[in-house]
Every structure is written in C-alpha cells, then in structure tokens.
Specification:
The complex is a heterodimer. Chain A is mainly alpha-helical. Chain A contains nine helices and no strands. The model of chain A has no long low-confidence stretch (mean pLDDT 84). Classes of the chains: A mainly alpha, B alpha/beta.
Chain lengths: 222, 258
C-alpha cells in the first residue's frame, strides 16, 4: 500500500483534490459557455442561409478533424508567437474547450430540432395553436428531451479531455498526480500505479453519476 | 343540408411545376359527409391540406360559411380552430399523456378553463372506450387507440367541420374497425366531415356523397350507392375493380386451402 502512504503524506491528498477542483471548474466554465453558445449555433445551423450553414460546417469539421491538443497548442503558444498575446493556460483551456463544445453542442441542437417530425408541427397547427404556442408546447419540449442525454454525454467527454491541459502548464488533477509520483520516485517506486488508480477513481466518481443520469433520462424519454 | 359550410372554388395547386390539383371545385353542406377516393398521388391529401391551410393554393378560393379563408388576409389560426384535421401518421404529442394531448388545444388555443375541458375530455374518452388511458403516454397505446385519441383531440376543439386524411392507412387491419366506428358515430350525430380513405366499404357506409379524384381532377361525383355499384365513368369502374380483384384473389386462395 505504498500509494496510500504517499497519498497521506504531507498535503498530497489535499493537493490532489485541489487539482480535481481545477479540472472541474475549468470544465464547468467551458461546458456552461458551450451550452449557451451551442443553443445559438444550433439555431444558426438550422437556418436556410447557405453562407451561415457553410461557415458552421467548416467550424464543425475543424474541431472534429484537429486534435484538441493541437488546438490547445495553437491558442497557448501560437497566439503568443503570432500576435504576442500571452494567454494563461487556464484561459487558453476555456477558449479551446468552448470552441470545441459550442460547435459540437450546436450540431446536437441542430440534430434534435431536425429530428422532430414535420407532422408534429402540422398537427399542432391543425389544433389552431399559434406559431409561438407550437414552439412552446410541442417543439421545444421535445427538442430538449432529445438533447439532454447527448449533451450530458458531451459534458463527460469534455471533463475527461481536460486532462490534456497539463501539457500547457495547467496544474490540474493529473498533473498533481504526476508531481506526487515524481516526488516519491526514490522511496516509493511502486506508488505510481496506485496514484493513477486514485486519479482514475476521481474521474470516475465525477463522470459516472453524470453518465448514469444521462442513461436514466434516455430511458425515461425514449 | 341547407347551407354550404365549405365551398372550394376552382382551386389549383402544383409542386415544382407539376400540377397536383387542377381546377377543383366542391361544396360540403352542413351535416354532410363527403368522401374523397382515388388512386395514390391523385391529390386527395393535398386537397384536404389546402383546406386547412397546410398548403398554399396557387389559384382559386376556399370559403368557410361564405367567408374566404384563402388569400393574403387569411387568418389560419382562426380557420384551424373551426376546421379540425386528423392525419394518417400517429400524430399525438409523445411528451404528453393522453389528457395533456386533449387539453392543449382547448386550453391554449381557445383559452377555456382546464377543469371544464377535462370533464368533457373524460366523457369523450369514455365514449370511445379509452377512459382508463387518460393518463397513459401515447407510446403505450396501440395504433388504433392513438387514432381514437387523435379524433377526440380534434373533436374537443368543437370544430364546425372535420377533415380526416387516410386515418386508418397506417393501422393493422384489426384496428381499422375500432377507429372507423368512432367516425361512423360522429357521422350519425351530424358532424360535417370530408374524408379521404382507401376503405371502400367504410366509404360507402359513411358517405352522403362521393368524389372520385384522379390526376388532380374530379372525374366523378355522386351518391355512394350509385358510385360504388354503377359508376358512370370507365376510370371509376377500373379503380373500383382493383378492390374487387383483391377480394376475388383472397376468395380463390381460401377455397384452395379448403
């Protein structure tokens, strides 16, 4: 139980939890921004204007093709080199993850809106509801139901992917774990597996309830 | 059958240059049941959809109680509150239970008090044998049950007229009956209806008048007894024969089995 000893030594456990807090706060900031922007982007994506749709398409393809790590390097190092804009690692992380999340979220919104069959609108129209009422009582509730499970899925993916930001100098949970392991290299060589196990566990207890909730909602609203 | 409730005057409608309805005129009187039959793609559904403003007509006009409901100044919401429509696809709102579906139109579009509508809704559900399903979700209902709920939903708006667009076409055969019985009931009570259907026997039983539409044109119009047994036009005869042929084939299969 070398890992446990190392973990309980000094402020190691507190620091690990602090790292988890960095992971979570940056994730939550990016997720909140992504949801807000994504709703807007989704509506743009369902518009008939070709230029807007082409732009959204390009954006979506970019974030899907370019690895998140490359985007992080581009913003963190690239901006400094090209425009002499010195962004902190945290700011770069929120920018990149919002850029990614808002695009993906937008596509989810687009899919959810377009998946509502046309006859739902027609039968609501046939009941003499106004345009606003059709949206409020028929289209939006169904869109949100289809959206929430997938949006939650995206959120867990974003939380996990924040582990990359240690590569631009942000000391989040995984970086703290590495530091702890490095410190203990000479007196507790076997601790690494255990410490990474703890990190695994931390990610798990954050993401699992979210996945569970997504599964529940999916079943309930299927 | 005194007053014309609905008058369709010389309407034409095309999609992307191909004509779907060409110069169609018809009248539906109060309390009358008009059945529209014809081969697929003849424009039957488009005709009903034009009446309810789901499609815009290219020319002609449609009048409800003498007032035009087409043209620039039309108030579609007001028209749809008076003309109910039920579709082929199960079009209940899946995120609401049966009662929620029934209450939406009357309480939101007509702004009637919820308790009052709820009592009416329960009474009508009872009539169609679905009172125990009031709080079931649509996906737990069979196709026939869904269509009966859809009929009740349309009727609760107290429409002056009902448009039924192939409401049994997507149903399993054994469920067709339970839905059509409700429609027959409504006809007996004097509900004005325009019905598009492929159920020829039902058409004959429910219709006061039959219109045979083909290629967007009214080919024949007449009383059901005359139309179904002594059609005047060759096209109507051929069309009706396709149904007879199916029946004959079934008979010969049955006798081969026996």
């Amino acid at each position: 139980m070398q890992a446990l000893d190392v973990l309980l030594k000094g402020r190691n456990l507190a620091r690990l939890l602090q790292g988890l807090w960095v992971t979570l706060s940056l994730s939550l900031a990016a997720i909140a921004l992504s949801v807000a922007l994504g709703l807007l982007v989704g509506m743009l994506m369902t518009m008939k204007n070709r230029a807007i749709r082409a732009f959204c398409r390009l954006w979506l393809e970019t974030i899907r093709i370019v690895p998140q790590l490359v985007l992080l390097f581009l913003v963190y190092f690239g901006m400094a080199k090209a425009f002499d804009i010195q962004l902190s690692g945290e700011a770069s992380a929120v920018i990149v993850f919002t850029f990614w999340g808002a695009g993906e979220m937008g596509d989810l919104v687009r899919g959810a809106v377009q998946s509502i069959p046309r006859h739902q609108t027609e039968s609501a129209n046939a009941l003499g509801l106004t345009r606003g009422q059709v949206y409020r009582y028929v289209i939006i509730p169904q869109t949100v139901r289809r959206l929430i499970p997938q949006a939650i899925n995206l959120a867990t993916r974003m939380i996990k992917t924040t582990s990359l930001i240690m590569l631009i100098g942000v000391v989040e949970v995984l970086k703290v774990a590495q530091q702890i392991i490095d410190n203990a290299r000479y007196d507790a060589l076997q601790a690494a597996v255990g410490i990474y196990g703890v990190v695994f566990f931390l990610y798990f207890i954050v993401c699992w309830p979210i996945s569970l909730a997504a599964g529940r909602l999916e079943k309930k609203w299927a | 059958m005194a007053n014309p409730l609905l008058e369709v005057r010389h309407i034409s409608k095309g999609f992307d240059g191909t004509g779907v309805l060409e110069d169609v005129s018809l009248t539906v009187h109060e309390g009358e049941v008009l059945v529209v039959v014809g081969p697929s793609g003849c424009g039957k559904s488009t005709l009903l959809r034009c009446i309810n403003g789901l499609e815009r007509i290219d020319s002609g006009e449609i009048l409800l109680r003498g007032k035009p409901i087409t043209g620039e100044k039309r108030d579609l919401v007001a028209v749809r509150q008076k003309v109910g429509m039920v579709f082929q696809s199960y079009d209940l709102f899946p995120h609401m239970d049966v009662m929620g579906n029934l209450l939406l139109g009357p309480t939101k579009a007509l702004r009637r008090p919820k308790a009052e509508v709820e009592a009416e809704a329960m009474a009508m559900l009872k009539r169609v044998g679905l009172e125990e399903k009031a709080h079931a979700l649509p996906r737990t209902l069979s196709g026939g049950q869904k269509q009966r709920v859809a009929l009740v939903r349309a009727m609760l708006m107290k429409p002056e007229m009902l448009l039924l667009d192939e409401i049994t076409a997507a149903l399993d055969p054994e469920m067709v009956r339970e839905v059509l019985n409700v429609v027959l009931d409504l006809a007996k009570e004097g509900m004005t209806m325009a019905i598009v259907t492929h159920e020829m026997r039902f058409a004959e039983a429910v219709a006061d008048r039959v219109i045979f539409l083909e290629g967007g044109v009214i080919v024949e119009e007449g009383a059901p007894a005359q139309f179904f047994h002594h059609p005047k036009t060759e096209r109507a005869r051929q069309f009706l024969n396709t149904f007879v042929y199916e029946a004959a084939k079934k008979q010969s299969e049955n006798s081969a089995d026996a």
